[in-house]
Amino acid sequence: VLLNLADSLSVYTVYINNEVLQTPTVCACARRKAFIKLLYNEIPRFNNKALLIASLRSCLIAPIQRLCKYPLLVRELLSVTDKSHADIKTLKAALTKLQEAAMAVNEEKKAAEQQTKMKEIDEALVDRKGFELHKEGRIFVMEGALLKISNGITQERQFYLFNDVLIYGRASMMKAGRIHMRGKILLGRLVINDLPDSSTIQNGFEIVRLDHKKKRYIICSKLADSKGAANKKMWKDAIEQQALIQRLNYEANPPDEEDVWQPYNMPGNDILKKTC
User: Fold this and answer.
1) At what angle do helices 22-30 and 52-80 cross, to 10 degrees?
2) Residues 114-144: b if buried by 16+ CB within 10 A, e if exposed
3) Which of 217, 247, 220 lies closest to 233 in space, CA to CA?
4) Distance CA 109, CA 15 (A)
5) Can you tell me whether residue 57 is helix, strand or coil?
6) Residue 254: what pLDDT?
7) Facing residues of 179 across strands?
8) Per DSSP, what are the bridge partners of residue 121?
9) Separation CA 122–CA 179 (nearest Å)
10) How far is the C-alpha of 179 from the C-alpha of 157, rounded, in Å?
11) Which 8-state DSSP code applies to residue 184?
12) What is the C-alpha radius of gyration for the chain, rounded to an integer number of angstroms?
């Protein structure tokens, strides 16, 4: 039975991939009196109007939670089954297949979430000046509001980190949810330097481009004290991690373009002390 169950878990993929649509759909349905009335009158478990939507959300999340519980159930069975029992081999095989199936469904979920997030950012970005967000192999990593200091002026910017590029922009004053793109930094062509706190810079770090412009960016967390330090570290570490991967890729497969990136230790780049 458990082996057959593992083979059928792929049906969860479609349901889990549509999870991102559940919240807006439930919110829309919750505003419809006919929908609420139908659940309240026809389904016994929804007999409390005050908790009706919460109960609905609980039902919708149950299949996803159950998928994670199957391997736990089999693992528990293995722990209480005598090692000489005839079912041990079958249980071990079932556990392996259930873990593989759960992992495959999880990867499908991550891919679906990536597509949804990329679409969301794609719709939000304006004034791109030819920049194409969708690119083969590009993966969204994280986003957030940070402070960018330029020519002594501190500006709040929305940053989007991908596995190959860091882009930033300012929120539109006219249209909510729109971000006017203001720049991009290729991760294979930069180094990051930590900046000590001072009277003008708190919880900040410096990004230096390694192309012909050698442009510098000072980025600071919006948050103060320990939260700001943690936020700074999170961003700095994430950028460094992705930049290291991209730098190694560039060294292994140099890009065929006019503005060829150079590793930090090549002649002409000795002004930079630290590499990602």
Assistant:
1) 140
2) eeeebeebeebbeeeeeeebeeeeeebeebe
3) 220
4) 9
5) helix
6) 67
7) 125, 171
8) none
9) 10
10) 9
11) E
12) 25
pLDDT of the residue at 261: 36
How much is the average pLDDT of 175-198? 91
217-242 per-position pLDDT tens digit: 999 999 988 999 999 999 999 999 99
Among the residue ranges 162-171, 180-189, 197-206, 249-258, the one predicted with the least confidence is 249-258
Taking CA atoms, 262 is separated from 32, 115, 230, 236, in Å, by 60, 32, 31, 22
Question: Rounded distance, CA 264 to CA 198, Å?
Answer: 27
Residue 98: both structure tokens together: 């259930």
Residues 108-129 pLDDT 10s: 888 888 888 999 999 999 999 8
Residue pLDDT, tens place only, 142-174: 999 999 998 889 999 999 999 999 999 999 988
Cα–Cα distance for residue pair 215/227, rounded to 1 Å: 28
Q: Are strands 125-126 and 179-186 parallel, antiparallel or unpaired?
A: parallel
**How many other C-beta atoms can be found within 10 angstroms of the C-beta atom of residue 68?**
11
Instruction: Specify the 3-state DSSP secondary structure of 196.
Output: coil
Residues 6 or more apart from 153 whose CB is under 8 A from it?
Answer: none
Sheet with strand 204-209: strands edge to edge:
125-126, 179-186, 165-171, 153-162, 140-150, 216-220, 204-209, 190-195
How many Å apart are CA 210 and CA 186, to the nearest integer?
A: 9
CB atoms within 10 A of CB 167: 22
Q: Which residue has the tokens 């519980």?
A: 69
